[in-house]
Amino acid sequence: MDATSPTVPSQPRSQFVTWVVLAVAAGAVFIYSLAAPPRGDSGRTGPAIGKKLPFLQLEPLTGEATAVKLEDLQGRVTLINFWGTWCPPCRQEFPHIVELAQELAGNKSFHLYPVSCGQDGDEDLTDVRSETMAFLAARGAALSTYSDPNSESRRAMVVGLGLEGFGYPTTLVLDQQGVIRGFWIGYTPGTELEMKALVEELLAKPAA
Hints:
208 residues, 5 helices, 3-stranded mixed sheet
């Protein structure tokens, strides 16, 4: 497991500054790992479950992606998948993410955000974009992807959700009110079935 403490860039958004201050106060370390810690009860238990994301700012990377903010998640079941082309478990999981996206493409009550990440916190988005495009082309995958500039959303998650670190892949499923109902770190065969079952369960419930 590699641990790094990247410099947090100054941001005009007061909400993110709050999480930065908390991170410094807590001495938080942003951890990148390929090892999957125990996932609990099928991704439905753990410190993140029942909470809302403290911050989210995704930018378009490939395809027809558009910028995404936290308020954009309201009213829809959402799956956010943080992955990397360099990550063996991510590459193993990737076809299942594509399949899920295809199966639910016509459902306006669901949205999937695949967030392609570099191998360190100071990732070069130009490199991430070119590597992601090559990865998608090699697999014939027509999938819009997103970026998390300066790892802002990931850093805020670690602090705001009380995580010990951050591993790849990390997948969240949120309900129509933006509450986290599923949280998986790492990938093992069958995890995609758990994700799909949860998404379908949430879609079957009427939005409050």
